[in-house]
Amino acid sequence: MSESGQFNQARAGDGSLRATAVAGRREKNKWWVLVAMVFGLFMPMLDSLVVNVALPTIHRKLGAGVSDLQWIIDAYTLTFASFMLSGGTLADRFGRKKFFILGLVVFTTGSLLCGLSSSIGELIAFRALQGAGGSLLLPGSLAIISATFQGRERGAAIGVWSAMSGVAVAVGPLIGGYLVQNVNWQSIFFINVPVGAVAVVLTSLVVADSRDLSRARRIDPPGAVSGTLGLFFLVYATIEGNSKGWTSPLILGSFALAALLLVTFLWVEARSDSPMLPLKLFSNPTLSAAIATAVAVFFALFGMTFFMSLYLQNVIGYDPVATGIRMVPFTVMILLIAPVSGRLSDRYGSRWFMAGGTAVLAGGLALSLRMQASSGYLDVIFPAMVAMGAGMALTMAPLSSAVMSSAPPRLAGTASATQTTSQQVGGVFGIAVLGAVVTGAFKSDFPSWLARAGLPARAVGTVSRLGAAASSGTLPAAALRRLPAPARSLVLGAVHQSFVGALHDGLYVSIGFALLASAIAAIFVRTHVRGRAAAGEAMAEPERAKGAVVGA
Question: Global pTM?
Answer without folding.
Answer: 0.76
